[in-house]
Design a protein that fits this description.
By secondary structure, this protein is mainly α. The chain has two domains: about 80 residues, Rna Polymerase Sigma Factor, Chain: A; about 90 residues, Winged helix-like DNA-binding domain superfamily/Winged helix DNA-binding domain (Arc Repressor Mutant, subunit A, Orthogonal Bundle), CATH 1.10.10. About 70% of the residues lie in helices and about 0% in strands. It is built from nine helices and no strands. Keywords: Sigma factor, Transcription, Transcription regulation.
């Protein structure tokens, strides 16, 4: 499979990771586009014996961090009051949407380090070793960040009244 085709197969996961990093669909799309442009320009540096996804995630993360350094914080988290407006009149069949919204809000409230690790391990189902390579930290650091992130998410969701959460390893 040629390099362009390999890149296109990674688009959905790149978008998901980018959205988790930025919290904004438009910024996420811009970040993915920048990442793909950089990947094409630097394709000669890619080692095909290594996972393409890890290489792209590292590039995407580095571009995001560079953007934060250059422009200041990239996403603004709404206040809980703003998020709660109008939620009292929700029908019971829409409660699952509220729970998903609460999870998204909690994810956005995590620090960058905790959000990255929970998305890569929990959503992208990457191994601790792969995540440690992407983030450039030891496996033990990935494990401790993940533990802290899960605990913070649990606390935030319990504050919003979502107490029936099950623990996932």
């Amino acid at each position: 499979m040629d390099f362009r085709r390999q890149l296109s197969t990674e688009l959905p996961v790149l978008r998901r990771f980018s959205r988790a990093l930025t919290g904004d669909p438009a910024l996420a799309d811009d970040l993915v586009q920048d990442c793909l442009e950089r990947a094409m320009l630097k394709s000669h540096l890619y080692d095909p014996s290594r996972p393409l996804r890890a290489w792209l995630f590292t590039m995407l993360r580095n571009l995001h961090i560079s953007g934060i350094r250059r422009n200041g914080r990239s996403n603004v988290v709404k206040t809980v009051d703003d998020l709660m407006d109008g939620e009292d009149a929700v029908a019971p069949e829409q409660e699952h949407r509220l729970a998903a919204g609460s999870v998204q809000e909690a994810l956005e409230r995590l620090s960058q380090q905790h959000r990255e690790v929970i998305v890569l391990v929990g959503l992208e189902e990457m191994s601790y070793r792969d995540v440690s390579e992407i983030l450039g930290v030891p496996v033990g650091t990935v494990m401790s960040r993940l533990s802290r992130a899960r605990e913070q998410m649990r606390q935030m969701l319990e504050e919003r009244g979502h107490t029936g959460l099950r623990r996932v390893k």
